[in-house]
């Protein structure tokens, strides 16, 4: 008998002796107590990732976007973005090479996660396809306060598993064996999140 056959025989014997009744699996990890200040924690964690974060009222959003864009001039905005962005071009299926000619992209997010400082795009209205948020050097992402959930289990429960998702925690970065950090390798070099307070 080969080692493989011996191992499989042992597995089969164990399975024959196993209790087939349903075991109760604790699922407490799927929920967490509400956070006292999820928006504040989200802001702190986003900054921990070396991303920029600003907060504004709904009426101040156009000015906040313009400020976040800084000197960027070629700006891409996906279809369905909720406010006009001065000087922007609508995303219409550009190739990666064409996307690389843009200085920035402005999107909304599906939600944000307070405990990890993560924004999640499910590529619905105002978010565009995945490449839009990965190729331009600056990604400005708009998120409403009521879209911030406490933790990852809350995010997973809120998201549609049938939709594509991009989870972003800070600007794209990597480091080599000597821990020299390089930003902008696999995505935008700069991420700026704008958190919008309810009207």
Write the layout of secondary structure elements.
Layout (H helix, E strand, L loop, with lengths): L2 H15 L20 H11 L3 E6 L3 H9 L5 E3 L10 E3 L5 H4 L4 E5 L2 E3 L4 E4 L8 H5 L3 E7 L3 E2 L2 H7 L7 E3 L4 E3 L5 E3 L6 E8 L2
Parallel strand pairs: 1-12, 2-3, 2-4, 4-7, 5-8, 7-12
Antiparallel strand pairs: 5-6, 6-9, 10-11
Organism: Amycolatopsis rhizosphaerae
InterPro entries: FTHF_cligase-like_sf, LUD_dom, NagB/RpiA_transferase-like
Protein name: Lactate utilization protein C
Explain what you see.
This protein is of the alpha/beta class and 199 residues long. The protein has a single domain, classed as Rossmann fold. It is 26% helix and 25% strand. It contains six helices and twelve strands. The strands form three sheets. A six-stranded parallel β-sheet has the order 1-12-7-4-2-3, with helices on both faces. A four-stranded mixed β-sheet has the order 8-5-6-9. Strand 5 and strand 6 form a beta hairpin. The chain is elongated and about 70 Å long. The model has no long low-confidence stretch (mean pLDDT 89).
Tally of helical segments:
6
Name the overall outline.
elongated
Q: Which class in CATH terms?
A: Alpha Beta
The CATH superfamily title: NagB/RpiA/CoA transferase-like
Q: Roughly what fraction of the amino acids lie in strands?
A: 25-35%
Count the domains. Answer: 1
Low-confidence stretches: none
What is the rounded distance between the termini? 73 Å
Mean pLDDT: 89
CATH topology: Rossmann fold
Largest sheet: 6 strands, parallel
Task: List the strand order in the largest sheet.
Answer: 1-12-7-4-2-3
In total, the number of strands is 12
What percentage of residues falls in helices of 4 or more residues? 25-40%
Query: From N to C, what is the helix and strand string?
Result: HHEHEEHEEEHEEHEEEE
**Helix/strand class:** alpha/beta
CATH architectural designation: 3-Layer(aba) Sandwich
- Calculate Rg over CA atoms: 22 Å
């Amino acid at each position: 008998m080969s080692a493989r056959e011996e191992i499989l025989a042992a597995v089969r014997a164990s399975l024959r002796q196993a209790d087939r009744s349903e075991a109760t699996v604790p699922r407490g990890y799927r929920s967490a107590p509400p956070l006292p200040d999820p928006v504040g924690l989200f802001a702190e964690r986003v900054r921990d990732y070396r991303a920029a974060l600003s907060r504004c009222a709904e009426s101040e959003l156009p000015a906040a976007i313009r400020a976040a864009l800084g000197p960027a001039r070629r700006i891409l905005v996906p279809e369905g973005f909720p406010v006009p962005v001065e000087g922007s071009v609508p995303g219409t299926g550009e190739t990666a090479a064409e996307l690389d000619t843009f200085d920035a992209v402005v999107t909304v997010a599906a939600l944000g996660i307070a405990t990890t400082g993560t924004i999640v795009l499910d590529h619905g209205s105002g978010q565009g396809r995945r490449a839009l948020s990965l190729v331009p050097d600056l990604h400005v992402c708009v998120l409403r306060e009521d879209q911030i959930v406490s933790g990852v289990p809350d995010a997973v429960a809120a998201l549609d598993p049938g939709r594509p998702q991009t989870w972003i925690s800070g600007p794209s970065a990597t480091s080599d064996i000597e821990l020299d950090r390089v930003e902008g390798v696999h995505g935008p070099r700069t991420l700026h999140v704008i958190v919008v307070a309810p009207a």
